[in-house]
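Appendix C. Worked example: Short chain amide porin
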Amino acid sequence: MFRKQILIALSCCSLLAFPTFAQNSEQYGSGLKLNLNPEGNKYVRFLVWSQIWARYNQNNPGTLVNGSPSQSSMDFGARRLRLLTYAQISPRYMIVTHFGINNQTFTNGGGSGSTGTGGYGQGKKPQLFFHDAYNEFAIVPAKKPVTGQTNTFTLSLGAGLHYFNGVSRQSSASTISFMMIDATIFNWPTIEMSDQFARQFGLFIKGNAAKLHYQFSINKPFATNLVPKDSANIAVDNNGESEASYAGYVDYQFLDQESNFLPYRVGTYLGSKRVFNIGAGFYHQANGTRSSNALGVVEKHPINLFGVDVFADLPVGDKSKGMAVTAYGVYYNYNFGPNYLRTSGTMNTGTADPNFPAADKVLEGPGNARALMGTGSIYYAEAGFLLPKFSTKLRLQPIASYAYKNFEALRAGGSFFDVGCNLFIDAHNAKITAQYASRPLYDAGTKLLKDRKGELIVQFQVAL
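Step 2, the predicted output written as structure tokens:
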């Protein structure tokens, strides 16, 4: 069955075939932009994108879908529906807002209080919310205001709900230009716990010193209050009156320089740039978690997270064929406190069957949940190859990724595999991605590897 699903995923990418040289379509130009003066340096710009998923999932043991036992399920849903707008009326000042919805399925993702059946039934009428909302002032802008010469050192200061994160490149990933179908999610280590969809309120600085690019922030994490299990020595998110968090990421860009105008890091340039970067980052919050030790005494623990990564995106071979290779590798060292572990599944439509035999349960829980992140280490790599062009529009890019997670709370490391293909209809502005994922499952009692399950996803993306 697994072989058949992998073949289906790869076949989805070969159904069509036609080149775009750049990360965005050549027809896109400056996009949806409203100029406020004849020179075009005072403006408001809009970006709109939609990512719709079609999925087939092998559910974890003990899964109910809308109350019915389910070994596998198929669904369609909205992974992301977003609108981003930013305005600049001087070379120094900018405001950014970004809102939308995520993860709406036929069973969940709806608005607050949407349950049962009817007009506000489960999964219906999701609520828009802000992802980013920040102001930014360029203390040392990219160009000197009088002469127009480029500054080799730049510095900007910003405040608000922002995405200038620490730890790794992918912690500030652009959701439009992913190479794989989606983020790993463990690249956002505090997601939906002490942050709002990978954002916190605070202050940040960003800029570059020649080829060294940097971003640092001090934030106020959102409150968490999970209660630690008595005498279990398992850390949970509970930060009390939360102390400030500190985060940063720097990378040295050896070849072409990437823009840091907005925080969103590109996943693949499709051969339009020659990029080779090495980076490192961190995140720290004192007293971010709590546990109850063997004596029943509650202890507080800092959250200390570190990452080191490398990114390359390079044209290869005959220029007329437009081929390119993209590769990314990262090592994460995460410490959330003793035996901390989070399990989660993206757009998970499953719930736990209370009557399922305890001996057959898996640690991850129902649906497509997996051991996501925890205290320990994660090694992750992804790569893609943009095939030679053979028409004037469409491009194919086979892709693959591998993650190895070794967590303190588990008695064995686990390997996660993904393989698929991007069909670029018009660069990242219109693309279809098919990807098959294989995940390990752990026995709920022994915490040893028990089984594997798979998930096939086809994504339809349009970004304007």
